[in-house]
Amino acid sequence: MSDRQAIIVVGPEASGNRYLVRVLMHHGFYGTGDYETPFDHNICDIKLEPKGGVKLYPYPRIVFHRSFPHGGKMPMLDKIKAELKKHEYNIFIFVMHRNYAAVLQSQLKRHVKTVVEGVANIEAAYRRIYLNLLHEKLPYQTVCHSDLGDPNYMSWMLGSAGVALKPGYEPFKNEYAEGVRQTLGAAKKRKPDIIIVPS
Question: Of 24, 141, 186, 188, which residue is most buried, by most CB within 10 angstroms?
Fold first, then answer.
């Protein structure tokens, strides 16, 4: 079996996808924590283009995110899987879960006009993600955003993908703390007569 590994971080927009990508970059994976990645093709697909006549993409460990939706489109993991398998990557998926109130703020700013539409958008994202994972038989681990500041959780979570927690992840704690602050702020902004019950 190949020792080449590709990790894809998926979740609704604003669920912490790019944060986890940066954590994995700290652990030796090639990628970028920006909205655009080195692998983007047709918005939400990927294309790996090795240079210099080599057959396989030169980086043995890569990481990237796919938000659902991504650039206004819902990604299809079958196309992404096919491209990665061409380059002999073993694939692992992290599925991000974050407080609905925080994720809703992003939905309301960019995609929908009401809370009801926002909740429907988020639930549609998770339906698409898990149906993709089931259909493509891809290994995955769910990730709880609120636990990412706990080194024991980080060690267990990364270990599920065969990645050992490296010393020095502490610089990410500031960014994580800011994410928690935004989550709490979003919860406080919610109208008291709105009750969100995830299905």
Answer: 24
